[in-house]
Structure formats: C-alpha cells, structure tokens
Amino acid sequence: MATERDQVTSPPAVGPAERGRAGATSRQRAALGASERSSERITVLYLGGWGRSGSTLLDRLLGQLPGVTSLGEVRELWLRGPVENRLCGCGAPFRSCPWWREVGDRAFGGWDRDTAAGLHALRTRIDRPWHLPALALPRLSRTHRDRLDVYADALRRVYAAVRAMGAARVVVDSSKLPGGAMVLRRVPGVDLRLVHLVRDSRGVAHSWQKKVARPDATREHDEMLRYGPVSASIRYGLYNSWTEMLQLFDVPFLQIRYEDLVADPRGQLTAVAAHAGVDVPSAALDFLTADAASFGTAHTVDGNPMRFHTGRVAIRRDDGWRSGLAERDRRIVSSITGPWLRRYGYLR
C-alpha cells in the first residue's frame, strides 16, 4: 500500500492502480499486481438496515457456514483496524492478528497506518447519510467519482485478498448503513447481495439507550454509541427506507425480521445462504440448534460484543423493551416509526 496520505484523500490524476504503484516498494508492487490480475468475481453479502437489529448474530451464524467468511463492519475497517489497533474478533489486536496481516500483505503489501487513516477520511467524504442522494445518481461529479474510484479499489483489494486466502466464495459485510451498499454496487468484481434485517423499532430504540462497554476499548470508559428515542427513531425510518430503495438499483434483495431469525434460526439462515448462492448441506448446520449456536473464532472488525463470543451461545428473543422502555419513550418511538411498524408486520 502506498504511504503518501494524499494519494487517497485527493482526486486522482490517473487511475487507482497506477496511483497505488506510485512510490510503492517492490513488495507492494507485487501485491498490487497480483490483486489486479484476479478477475474472478466475489459475492459480498451485505447486511443492511439499522443498528441493534441482530446483524452481529446473523453475521456470526453465516460465518460458520462452509465457503462463507464474515468480516464484520468493513466500513470501519480502516479506523478500527490499522489506525486504532482495536481487537479483532479473535481477541488479538488488529495489527498483531496473523489473519489480518495476511489480508494486508496480499491486498496492499502490508497495512500502513497513515494510508488507512486517509482511506477512513475518504470514506467519510463519500459514505455518510447526506451522500446518499449523490450515490444514487447515474452520473457522479468528477470529484466524487474520483474519490469513489480510489475507495472502491481499496475495497476490491481487501475482498480479493480474502478470497485468495482460502475457500471463501461469499464474504459477509455487516456494515448495515445503506451508503455502504451504494458504494459496494460500484466496486468492480463484486457481486453484491443485500439482506435487509429489520426489528421492532421499540426494541431497537430500547437497545440504543443501553450503556454497553466496548470489549475492544482503547481508553477508559469507552462505550458504544447511544441514541435517544427521537434520534433512534428518525434513523430507523431513514436507513430502513434507503435500504429498501436499493431494490430500485437491481441489487438482489431479501428482507428478514430479527424476531423470525431467533424463532427459526435454521430456516432463516438457510434462506439467507440461498440468497447468497450458497447451498447448505444439513451437516453444515450441526453447530446450530433451535435455541443455541456453537461459534468458532471469527476475524471480524467492529460490531457488538457478540463478535468475541465462542463456544455455545444461547439464541433467544430480546423483548426487554416491553418492560424496560419508558411509556413516554414508547409513544415517541411508535409515533415516529408507525409506518414502518405496520409495514414490517409489528402493528396490525
């Protein structure tokens, strides 16, 4: 990976591949060339919607299937990984994880902290909620297109490296936010499949109010984000609506509910795998019972604390909002998200 930070933060004068070679070491040039020679498409299964809807659970379940590799929330890879060096799902600091080191070597000739910081900054300039209208346009401005080309090329290299490392036919990205899927549909060599995971908005809002300490904390009192009932509800409507709109761009689309996933994990997992083109033999589901799953180690970036769990993990519906969500907050959430509660079958 080239080390000049401005190579990823300023519009390119030439194509992304040529920019990656400029100033690269011989080891880096070899990695870039190997990545460019790979023309095989890779399926990326994107878990979309809004946070606290069960995406980490679904991500972990999918990652147990043969031919499927879960990466966690890839939109946060650059910041949480090379820059902040937070824990991989395996428990090792990102820069010390042998698996991610190999991904970096294959994709870029090694991870570079400054370049990763530049890619994170670039991502925030093309993939934020207010960028969604621009990403939906058939033609982008030259500046936006150039930025997107550089960022898309970096993503392509990561996915190609993961594919080259083993038998992964499908990579799972649980980034959730619709902007990430809008970017991915423009990444060369990616066969994007979208799973829209929804949950009762009252359960989502209640979950966003909880104080959750980050197991990968890099400072004292490091907690996951929290939102109040109004903020969570507005985002619920916005992000779920934009996720549904991706169907207009011919992105293969499957919608499932969190409540159905925990009620019938085998059936829902099989349906999602089929959507990704993965045939699941019955023996591949031996890790899963009606109310629990046996998880191995996962090399995931970002996500809720479940990404660190191994061994037997109970699968049960979290309806804590029924007793834990204040009546006033429940009325606020129901008022703002009523159309979606009805649309998804939570109000009859």
Query: CATH topology, anyone?
Result: Rossmann fold
What is the CATH C-level name? Alpha Beta
Name the overall outline.
globular
Determine the strand fraction and express it as a percent band.
5-15%
Main sheet? Answer: 5 strands, parallel
Q: If classified by CATH, what would the architecture be?
A: 3-Layer(aba) Sandwich
Helix content: 40-55%
> Which parts are unreliable, with pLDDT below 50 for 5 consecutive residues or more?
1-38
Number of strands: 7
Order of helices and strands: HHHEHEHHHHHEHEHHEHHEEHH
- Rg: 20 Å
Report mean pLDDT, rounded to a whole number.
Answer: 90
Structural category is: alpha/beta
Gap from first CA to last CA: 54 Å
- Our count of helices gives 16
Number of domains: 1
For the biggest β-sheet, the strand order reads: 2-3-1-4-5
List the helices and strands and how they pair.
Elements: H1 6-9, H2 16-21, H3 26-37, E1 42-49, H4 55-63, E2 68-70, H5 77-83, H6 98-108, H7 113-126, H8 132-136, H9 142-165, E3 170-176, H10 178-184, E4 190-198, H11 201-208, H12 229-245, E5 253-257, H13 258-263, H14 265-275, E6 292-295, E7 311-314, H15 321-324, H16 327-343
